[in-house]
Amino acid sequence: MAEPGVRVLGRACDVLDCFTEAEPRLSVADLRARTGLPATTVARIVSTLLQEGLLVREGDSYRVGLRVLVWSAPARSGSSLLGVARPFVEQLRDVTGESAGVYVRQDATRVLVESAASRHSVIYRGYVGQVLPLHAGAAGKCFMAFDESALATALAAGLERYTDSTVVTRDELDRQLAQVRERGWAFTESEREVGLNSVAAPVPGFDGRPEAALAIGGPSFRLDRDEAERVGPVVAATARAIAARMGHVPAEERADV
User: Fold this and answer.
1) How far is Cα 177 from Cα 210, in angstroms, rounded to an integer?
2) Given this model, what pLDDT does residue 247 score?
3) pLDDT tens per residue across span 72-86
4) Are 134 and 104 in contact (CB under 8 A)?
5) Mind listing the pLDDT tens digit for each residue in 31-41?
6) With the CA atoms of 170, 113, 248 and 97 taken in that order, what torsion angle do they form, in degrees rounded to the nearest 10?
7) Domain IclR-ED, which positions (predicted)?
8) Which of 3, 67, 74, 84 lies 20 to 30 Å (CA to CA) from residue 189?
9) Residue 99's beta-bridge partner residues?
């Protein structure tokens, strides 16, 4: 019996999600290991994606096909978030001196959808499409602090340790999220990578939950606690400005943006 269409589509997305900028070419064995799907299922999905031009075979490995680029332009032009955010991201980069970006949530992860790289020599280099965990890093903390479903999803996925500073206990996570809610922005130190710090604030949607998170990232010798206290309100104000431009901030709050 054929699998329901939605289930097949979901598994095809699971396969495509395995490819990243760091690993643009993967073998069938790699795809099986990353998805946990049976060999026959992976083979069937890969065959279909090849036929549709969504995958390209190169020897014994595969890469994402250029057909996906056809979808990128309408995706960007159709997104009010991306249409609005770019100048604010660049302005935040210029004001703080650090790499700035916008993340959206995808289940227990966050995805970088807009970025502007710092002009310093030593910088954080994120890239559009980068997938990162929710629990490690300031942007993820913003989603969890203001959206109970994001917190529940992250907890269900598990609090994996990346460094000695990664928060892996519920009590400490709850303490940090309470602090984020109190001041309206988050600061994290070396949670995902040693020496990399970040500051972020939520971009509220119509229902008050974060539609996105605006963040800056930089080396710990520049973006330390004192600097975070200085730029945190700037990041939060810029995030509110994005929300206001999208019409998500109530009129009485827009005067503060």
Assistant:
1) 14
2) 84
3) 666 665 567 888 999
4) no
5) 999 999 999 99
6) 90
7) 67-248
8) 84
9) 217
Q: Judging by DSSP bridges, how do beta strands 55-58 and 109-116 pair with one another?
A: unpaired
Residues 6+ apart with CB under 8 A from 233: 184, 185
Q: What is the pLDDT of residues 99-148, one digit of tens each?
A: 999 999 998 999 999 999 999 999 999 988 888 999 999 999 999 999 99
* CA 174 – CA 6 distance, rounded (Å): 35
Supply 172's token pair. 């400490």
Contact 60/30 with Cβ under 8 angstroms? no
pLDDT band of residue 152 (cuts 50, 70, 90) is very high
Specify the pLDDT at position 144. Answer: 98
Between β-strands 55-58 and 186-189, what pairing exists: parallel, antiparallel or unpaired? unpaired
Contact 105, 134 (CB under 8 A): yes
Structure tokens at 231: 């730029």
